[in-house]
Amino acid sequence: MKRIYLDYAATTPVHPDVAAAMQPYFSEKFGNPSSLHSFGQEARRAVEKAREDVAALIGALPEEIIFTSGGTEANNFALNGVAYANEKKGNKIITTAIEHHAILEPCHFLKTRGFEITCLPVDKFGLIDPELVWHSITEKTILVSVMHANNEIGTVEPIAEIGARVKRQGAGKISFHTDAVQTVGMLPIDVNKLGVDLLSMSAHKLYGPKGVGALYVRKGTRLNPFLRGGGQERNRRASTENVPGIVGFGQACVMAAQRLASDDNRIKLLRDRLLAGIMKNIPDVVLNGHPNLRLDKNLNISVKYVEGEALLLNLDFEGIAVSTGSACSSGTLDPSHVLLAIGLPHELAHGSIRFTLGHWTTAEEIDRVIAVFPKIVEKLRQMSPLKK
Amino acid sequence: MKRIYLDYAATTPVHPDVAAAMQPYFSEKFGNPSSLHSFGQEARRAVEKAREDVAALIGALPEEIIFTSGGTEANNFALNGVAYANEKKGNKIITTAIEHHAILEPCHFLKTRGFEITCLPVDKFGLIDPELVWHSITEKTILVSVMHANNEIGTVEPIAEIGARVKRQGAGKISFHTDAVQTVGMLPIDVNKLGVDLLSMSAHKLYGPKGVGALYVRKGTRLNPFLRGGGQERNRRASTENVPGIVGFGQACVMAAQRLASDDNRIKLLRDRLLAGIMKNIPDVVLNGHPNLRLDKNLNISVKYVEGEALLLNLDFEGIAVSTGSACSSGTLDPSHVLLAIGLPHELAHGSIRFTLGHWTTAEEIDRVIAVFPKIVEKLRQMSPLKK
Amino acid sequence: MAGSYSDKVMDHFRNPRNVGEIPDADGIGQVGNPVCGDIMKVYIKVKDNIITDIKFKTFGCGAAIATSSMATELIKGKTIEEALKLTNRAVADALDGLPPVKMHCSVLAEDAIKSAIDDYLKKSTGVGLQGWTTHNEEHGH
Amino acid sequence: MAGSYSDKVMDHFRNPRNVGEIPDADGIGQVGNPVCGDIMKVYIKVKDNIITDIKFKTFGCGAAIATSSMATELIKGKTIEEALKLTNRAVADALDGLPPVKMHCSVLAEDAIKSAIDDYLKKSTGVGLQGWTTHNEEHGH
Ligand SMILES: Cc1ncc(COP(=O)(O)O)c(C=O)c1O
Ligand SMILES: Cc1ncc(COP(=O)(O)O)c(C=O)c1O
Question: Which of A109, B146, C67, D126 has the most CB atoms within 10 Å of its CB?
């Protein structure tokens, strides 16, 4: 059975061209970029080339890119780094209820260290109201962090609008961060148009390797180091650089820029076809997230009367890989905080399924899902005490 | 010109067998280990297999291994994690003057957060006196961190002796950490014989990939998370696992265990040949570090009247890659804190050169260095105002 | 995590035994709630103190369905007294174990069965199970 | 970092010009110290106010040797006044720049030359350079 991967928001395969770019840096050009000799310097050049490629994708300067071990480190770095660098100026951090755990958990930690966290609500589509950000800012606010697009429901937030307001209100005093892990390489991004001071990325979401990411830091932004040690990344992020990973990230960014320039809407059309096919064949299904202001690749639905993990496992029996916002994927009993934040009742939150499409998704795959999914839903509904 | 790599302590090439083991996990078995579907589960199995292999190399249980992005993160994690988890019990941390920056810098940070750092001196060989550790422990001590072997001078510390004393004095109250980045895979390690509660490792020092490492954490050790976010690594270290990197690390550990079992002293013999050749041909050279209690691969010398970077660059012209403890490698003006800690005058510290041998080092390479090095030293000495 | 489900769990999840309703059931028990994401409803038919038939309907994850299936299998044909001895551990063991985060599902299955027996006893004797309430508080939120 | 040395720096480091001593020098200057890891010693020969010969000896890194070489090249054949106008920036620029952490080497080279001229002036006129001390304090530790 040919397996069908529809979980591109969880991670993506490394593109073969990316893998090829990385290949020489494992066993041949293996030097440590901090080494002064030729082995070190050829690694150094590769890292700096990748830095340019990553910067170019988001309209940044190369020296504004700090490589990290992924999106989580970029987020932890941004939050801790800005908080500690500005603690004399203020202690208030504004964020939202639908952020990734890699934002919420560091915020939770900072709360135990004397910082105050304001967690803004969202509307039923998962949208943040820029007015609300604006009104939440006080004299003590040092940082605003709002994600660019949500990883579960795909809603794209009005970052540029928020950025403009934060700047007007707190120019030079408040740093504005966005977690763009889900959007880098998917949406055109220009850090200046977005008005952000910091932006988090992770290579494995855009056909690059796992274990590498970056934090964009606008020149002049006060930021303390997070990983401390040797003087790598201009003393901002210690540890021997993951050279092959960084090279792969750079190559992934070059390729993403090409895709974005081509203005291809193939993935969106497939996603819409999947949505239409499901809605036509299965009653009592609701769409989660915004109908239009969402990532092209993302489809998140709740299937009434059934539970998400049970759906997921049955799809997996058919070779179809998806994700769920039900408790069961997270190791806790609570369903996704994002689905609860958009006001979904627990029952529906437990019945959510996320399909995320990508580069290798085909129409045949989508049609197979459209054919298979109703039977699975039907089987589980027959088992459900909720379905009358 | 065939280049000669003698900087294995800075980083190692990925062994071709390690690269081969990693290969399928980039583009084929690319799943996110947190995903419940088959793609995720095959990645999960690979990570757990690697965890067993890493644990086996150091006599630990698989669940005592937490994967990180490298040695620096493992060190930052250990120090911050133990400090914050025990701050109600005490605030004193004991470490040594010759630790890697990835220990000293986080200590420096913790000092700004109310912790007290005791930095123990070493003798002229770089050895820590276990008595001194013992006497430095107070009621408030929560953590002792002493490196297993020094990365610059190669001196191997009496960790087991220190461990036994820390346990006797502070059983259950004081955590004992060792930075074993330079020794894992080089020396036989058994965490129980060493008596350590935490131990840092980095794959790229033992023919594994850059950007992956691990922290061993003895069951029952109180440790706060450092990277916060999703529930990966049993809620102890968030971020999508670097699956190919982890697989490579596991394979590197399997191979290291085989090498250690073979009891091969080829590298030590080559190192001794290099030392003898240099001493014979060049006057006014001193050996840094302990004559016997040192890593087999490490040779660190100071060449009087000349400066290390100048030596390094001239060796590089000959295709020979080494390292120096002179200021110039670090971006500061100070020479290595390690060389100063063993009491070397600045002048000699600035003239240090480190050769570190490895798997692919040959006798021919060593002989070439023995032939070339005296000429380089002579050329620079003729230029030196210090040499009369 | 589902990834650590045993083959037995997967078998019972994929081909659950005793799914359905019993229109003229002698006892019906329902436990769990949508907040937790698990609801189990158990129907029993009792004759001469023996559980002659049993069916369930479950809204829940893989473990919830598998434990419902296994628990009903284990007590089918047993006396009421034997059925009351069924512990959540026994259900989990019969499934070759459950991931720690899923143990609550086995508790729910035990409760669902006790609840159905309680209902049967109330209906047949006017007195329900003594000293028993569901674990809802414990495994709930 | 050496990795960011320009080709010109590498050329002057690899083939330094004017290395050596002048036994009957008219002026000798030495600056730097072993703590910093850089010591430069400059010898000049002066005739009719013109620096007719210049040699140096340097203990130091690649940049220290390259700046010594370049600085001596730049003032060879120049008048004392012209030589005094040499700034560390000019040395660095002539080398197509230096990495930021290495700029102190160019300062040292400027100082070494001034120090040699100071010595020459003291010996020949009894009065040294006015209003001048080495930057030692600044670029030192
Ligand atoms: C929005 C968002 N932020 C952060 C992360 C964390 O990235 P990583 O797993 O690379 O650390 C993810 C993905 O897991 C994400 O989707
Ligand atoms: C002793 C020691 N500790 C820590 C590190 C840091 O490891 P990494 O560069 O993998 O973060 C190194 C090597 O750089 C080391 O030699």
Answer: C67
Report the alpha-carbon distance of residue A55 to residue A71 in Å, rounded.
Answer: 16
CATH class of D7-138: alpha beta
pLDDT digits (tens, 9 = 90+) for B271-296: 999 999 999 999 999 999 999 999 99
Q: Reply yes or no on whether the pLDDT at B330 is more than 60.
A: no
D68: Cβ contacts below 8 Å, ≥ 6 apart: D16, D18, D40, D42, D56, D58, D60, D109, D112
What CA dihedral angle connects B80, A209, B245 and B101, to 10 degrees?
-40
Q: Which residues of C fall within a CB distance of 8 Å from A312? A: 2
User: Is the pLDDT at B328 greater than 60, yes or no?
Assistant: no
The ligand 2 atom nearest the CA atom of B74: 11
Nearest chain D residue to A32, by CA: D3
For the CA of B150, the nearest atom of ligand 2: 1
Q: Where are the domains positioned within chain D?
A: 7-138
Tell me which ligand sits closest to the C-alpha of residue B145: 2
Between the CA of A205 and the centroid of ligand 1 the distance, in Å, is 8
Counting as low any pLDDT under 70, the low residues of chain D are: 1-3, 135-141
On chain A, the residues whose CB falls within 8 A of the CB of C10 are: 313
pLDDT in tens, C103-113: 999 999 999 99
Q: What is the DSSP letter of A227?
A: S
A213 close to ligand 1 (CB < 6 Angstrom): yes
In this structure, CATH architecture of domain B4-12+259-383: Alpha-Beta Complex (3.90)
Query: Would you list the domain boundaries of chain B?
Result: 4-12+259-383, 16-255
Give pTM, 2 decimals. 0.96
pLDDT in tens, A200-258: 999 999 999 999 999 999 999 999 999 999 989 999 999 999 999 999 999 999 999 99
Comparing CA positions, the residue from B314, B32, B199, B37 lying closest to residue A12 is: B32
Say whether residue B44 is in contact with chain C using an 8 A CB cutoff.
Answer: yes
List the alpha helices (DSSP H) in chain B. 16-22, 24-27, 38-57, 71-85, 101-112, 130-136, 159-170, 191-194, 232-235, 243-262, 266-281, 308-317, 337-341, 346-349, 363-383
The CATH class of the A16-255 domain is alpha beta
Catalytic residue numbers of D read 36, 105
Both tokens of D124, joined, read 């020949």
Considering only alpha carbons, which residue of chain C is nearest residue A340?
C35
Buried b (16+ CB within 10 A) or exposed e, D38-68: bbbbbbbbbeeeebebbbbbbbbbbbbbbbb
Q: Would strands A141-145 and A320-321 be described as parallel, antiparallel, or unpaired?
A: unpaired
Model ipTM value = 0.95
Q: How confident is the model at residue A169 (pLDDT cuts 50, 70, 90)?
A: confident
List, for residues A345-362, the tens digit of each pLDDT value: 999 999 999 999 999 999
Kindly state if the Cβ of B209 falls inside 6 Å of ligand 2.
no
pLDDT at residue B332, rounded to an integer? 61
Q: Provide the terminal-to-terminal Cα distance of chain A, rounded to the nearest Å.
A: 35
Residue nearest to atom 4 of ligand 2 (CA): B71
Report how many Cβ contacts below 8 Å link chain A to chain C: 75
* CB B240 near ligand 1, within 6 Å: yes
Query: Whose CA is closest to D62, among D18, D25, D15, D22?
Result: D15
Calculate how far, in angstroms, residue C75's C-alpha sits from the geometric centre of ligand 1: 46
Question: In this predicted model, what pLDDT tens digit does every residue of B177-217 receive, in sequence order?
Answer: 999 999 999 999 999 999 999 999 999 999 999 999 999 99
What tokens does B224 get?
Answer: 């706060």
| Mean pLDDT (chain C, rounded) | 91
> DSSP character for C56?
E
* Amino acid C34: pLDDT: 82
User: Which residue from A minimizes the CA distance to B309?
Assistant: A36
What's residue D8's pLDDT? Answer: 97
Q: In this complex, which of D13, D40, D141 lies closest to B313 when CB atoms are compared?
A: D13
